[in-house]
Specification:
By secondary structure, the chain is of the alpha+beta class. It has two domains: 144 residues, Macroglobulin (MG2) domain (Immunoglobulin-like), CATH 2.60.40; 123 residues, Glucose Permease (Domain IIA), CATH 2.70.70.10. Helix content is 16%, strand content 32%. Strands 9, 10, 12, 13, 14, 15, 17 and 18 form an eight-stranded antiparallel beta sheet that branches. A five-stranded mixed beta sheet has the order 2-8-7-4-5, with no helix packed on it. A hairpin with a 5-residue loop joins strand 4 and strand 5. The longest helix has 39 residues. The N and C termini lie far apart (113 Å). The relative contact order is 0.12. Bound molecules: zinc ion. Zinc ion (ZN) binds next to loops.
Amino acid sequence: MEAPRATKIHRRFELCVAVLCVIGVTLVLSSSDQASAASDEPPVATEPAAEEVPEPAPEPEEEPPAEVPEEEAEPEEEPARARGASRLRISSAKADPERIFLGSRRRAAFRFELSGDGARKLLVKVVKVSNGAVQKRFRLGRVKPGERQRVAWDGKLGGRRGFTSQGEHAFRVFSEGERAAVSRDSSTQRFDFYEHRFPLLGRHTYGDGFGAGRGHQGQDIFADCGARLVAARGGRVQTAAYQSSAGYYVVIDGRGTGRDYVYMHMKKAERPREGSWVQTGETIGIESDTGNASGCHLHFELWSKPGWYEGGSAKPPTRALKRWDSWS
Ligand SMILES: [Zn+2]
């Protein structure tokens, strides 16, 4: 009788051990599950590779208007809003110059530094401020804190897509794969893009307009003698010549416009050579009173396609000039 009882106890003990084992294994498994689940969760400060956002994301909806206030504090004061980038910031962010012109050598340059807790893959986007639409992307690759970054843009969209529309643009910095910008939209990161520049530098007044008196074909702009004249729009110098009423004059075939831009009563000096190319905003002469002119002034004409005495006709240029004047 003793022996079976001992065996029974022994069996019970064995069963107990087995149950404990199962519980123990289950506990070990579940705790290792938790551990692996925890390691799947990206720690706050590591690479956001798991969160790649597909490239053609609906960009315009990215920034609700409420988040684009007109005036911002200094960008270095602003905490990053990007998820997984709580300590990521940019500093010394600045766009220069404040305005660029289509067909000009001068591009909008954007400089900044990354500050924070490690290298990041960064992306710089140029957006139209009015609607948030992305016009251009620059992939910078891995950027370390303290490394100075610079990108520059001329307003062209690439390929045959032409150029961006006129108005205010902003550079914004993103950590690659994140939807929210690292940089807040500060005024120091903005620049304006325009297709034309006003052709006379310095103080001026408007004289006779289109059709005034004797079938005047342009707009007169008066300024002190010697004012610098620049190309309203770059292009090929079709004519640089002298004529008794126009004086020294220049005709520029505006690149990509089909239109001609005509400048009269100039000094002989500093005019570009026929057949050469000029950039928007480049000096093309000095205002004077050569030819039939009552006082120093620029006589400006705008000709429709295909151009000046090539089948086009002179168009009233005053409204266009006043618009260019407002931003130049
Ligand atoms: Zn005139």
